[in-house]
Structures are given as C-alpha cells and as structure tokens.
Amino acid sequence: MALSRALRCCQRIFSWIPVIIISSVVLWSYYAYVFELCFVTLSNHLERVVYLLMFHVCFIMFCWTYWKAIFTPPSTPSKKFHLSYSDKERYEMEERPDVQKQILAEIAKKLPIFTRAQSGAIRFCDRCQVIKPDRCHHCSVCETCILKMDHHCPWVNNCVGFSNYKFFLLFLSYSMIYCVFIASTVFQYFLKFWVGDLPNGPAKFHVLFLLFVALMFFVSLMFLFGYHCWLVAKNRSTLEAFSAPVFQNGPDRNGFNVGLSRNLRQVFGEDKKLWFIPVFTSQGDGHYFPLRTLRESENPLLANEGKWMEDGGSDEESADENGPSVIIRTES
User: Which residue intervals make up region (Disordered) (predicted)?
Assistant: First the structure.
C-alpha cells in the first residue's frame, strides 16, 4: 500500500517534467528576446518599442492560454449518470452478464445516451461506477471518466476534454503566433550576425538559438494544430478519429457532425468576439450532443426530457456555471 502511494506520488511529480521544460524554454525566450535582442542588439528606439509591445501581447496570450489548458479541471459525469445505491446493489448482486446489460439498459432509458459499446451494450465504467455519457471516456492517467475526452496531453499535464478543449486549441494557435513573430523579427539580425555586420557577443548565440527553436516548435505545432482544426471541422475527438463512435445502427464517424458552422459553435460558442479569448464559451454541459442523423421528432430524449430535468437541482446549477445548456437539434 505504501509502495503504491509512493509510486503514485513519483508519477505525479514526473508528470510535471514536460510542463517544466516548456516553461523553461518560454522563460529563456523571454530573456533572449527582450534583453539580448531588444535592449542589446537593437539600436533603433522606435523599432525596439514596437517589437517589445507586440512581443508582450503574444507572450501574455500564450501564457494565459497555456495556464488555462493546464489548470482547468476536466469535467466529469454528473450524479445522474452514477448508479443509485439500489441499482448498484442490484447490478453487483447479479452474476449473469446478459441480465447486467438489461439493468444498465433500463437505467439508461432515463438518460440522454445514444452511443453504445462495440458489443452494443450500454457503456459502463466499472472503475468509476458510472454510465458513460456520449463521448465520455475513462482516462487511466487521471483515473476518472472525462466528458468529451480528446486525449491526455503530457505537455499540459492534463486531460483535454469538454471543459478545456477550446483553451487547448487557443494554446496551440497562440504558440504558433508566438513562434512566427519571434522568427520573423529575429531573422534579419540572424543574417547580420551571420555575415558579420554585428559584433560577436552573447547576444549572437541567443539570437541564433531563438530562430532555430522558434522554427522547430512552429513546424511541430503546425501539424498538430492543423490536425485539430480538421477534427473540429468534422466534430470529432482524437479518440473518435481512431475509433468511430458506435450508435444503435452501428459505427458512424460522422455521427456528431452537424455542419461546419454548428461544429465551430459547439467548441467556441455563439459570440464570435469571445472565440479568441480564453474564457469558457463552449455550448452545452458536455453530457449530450446534437446528432447528425436524428430528427427532433424522432429524438427519444424529448419524450424523457421531464424525467431528465425534474430532479435537476444542483446539476442544473453546475451546468449553468460551465456554460449554457444546449437543446438537441439535428439536421436531416
């Protein structure tokens, strides 16, 4: 027991190493750009002021989005998806797998669940003792079920899911802007150092490494950001891109794809002025999502809406804190 706790503690400590590496590189880039480039290398005062102003805007937005991606807790299923004491006792006492599936199916009728396991059964997490909402998955690193889980990212030491997916995308985009700005403004001084127009000194090596590091990170970020832009356009998570969600009629990679405009609004919200600011604006509460192939008239959730909402209480309040709830609407 003590050994297990010690290993878990070591794992938590080591999990911060990627974040420390990124933070160290960013702090060094701040020193190299502000002091070695702007104050030591630049002689034009107007150029120095413009560079410093634009650099700090990029730096602040990068740090803000990175902070939000790291420290925004991933959302977990609400209490409605946990088994009640009687249901849990009935489920655990039953030894026949087919009957257990029937018990879960009966409970799930009251919940807005449309996806199934590969076997066609209701998706249930034995470790969390929770019926999984659509697009919810168990993270073995966080040791809990995450709403609309995309992946566990070591570079932010956090699960990327419903609560912070927008922040993760903004972090990638502002990281690219940060790298592009540094590379574009440093390049001319890199050439001057290279041909000997500027004197040798410590600033020369900082400028050289600034360009190489910025270009290296930009290339890697460009592919990752492009991949996630494609995922957002298709309304898929990374997990769904590798394994299509299963519905009652079978697997469908485009099951949650409701059109580019609505896909974007699900992640970034209705107010376009807030799309590029790291504040939570995503639609819904992460427990259910519009379906592409389901019409409103055929939606069983509308028939059970009273059951779903009648004992909402605290869950409704928590949904309001996380963002506006969304009514399931679909396009044929």
Answer: 305-332
